[in-house]
């Protein structure tokens, strides 16, 4: 039996109007550019820089973690889980970054209940699902997505409700400007010959993802993070080691020299200190379980239990959400 396109994507909640998608009114987001970086007009990159402020949390978001108004360790665990799933399914780096971007923008506008850990996981799964639907050609099912140390298992209908809530809070603006909107162009600026273009892009992506869980980078906008990551990648190539970070602001109008240098130094410091840093936090491999109801099966004879499904404890309610 054939399956229509509408049936295949019945659970895709990010249904933007096709006229809006192709109108060019807002900057598109893609991990790969259709044209070589040398053909990209600087005005397009300047447009990304102009709009990037609309796709990041507010200026006081970092301060909330510093003041412990928001739980930095919970965010770190959520991001660590996203990166584990991204590696498990070999998802694009942009998918992982978008997931965290949705998470941060949601947390800036809405506060999660402090008494339950499952709400963080439900939000994280929903953000990853939305990002995968935006960027991946093949998306794991909502049940298959909950791997790599997930402490709870949510039914698809529960995750879809959370997706809709996230979309509402984000005002359906999922086509975010990210560091990956800039890396191709900046790599060409650092290496106009294109000799090391592929390496610069790959290395910069690794650098961006390896630092994404660090709350310190919430201070910087995507363009500064992208420029700093390309500069760090260039340091590994002898022919490009003389690229001056102080001149990176000349790559495009609108770049901030101070922000690029500050972000670059922070990245360099983390790279140098990597050997002495604690390993990243990983969600514990615990499972919330219930014993089988069949009295004929004892716990000693059947060590495996059913996962607990949180299908009736969905807390999201637009009317009850606490807006910051």
Automatic annotation (TrEMBL):
User: InterPro entries annotated for this entry?
Assistant: Cyclin (IPR039361), Cyclin-like_dom (IPR013763), Cyclin-like_sf (IPR036915), Cyclin_C-dom (IPR004367), Cyclin_N (IPR006671), Cyclins_cyclin-box (IPR048258)
Domain of life of the native organism? Eukaryota
Cyclin-like domain location, by residue?
80-168
Alphabetized SMART domains for the sequence: CYCLIN, Cyclin_C
Keywords attached to this Swiss-Prot or TrEMBL record, sorted alphabetically, are:
Cell cycle, Cell division, Cyclin
The residues covered by the Cyclin C-terminal domain are 177-304
Protein name from the UniProt record: B-like cyclin
Q: What family is this?
A: Belongs to the cyclin family.
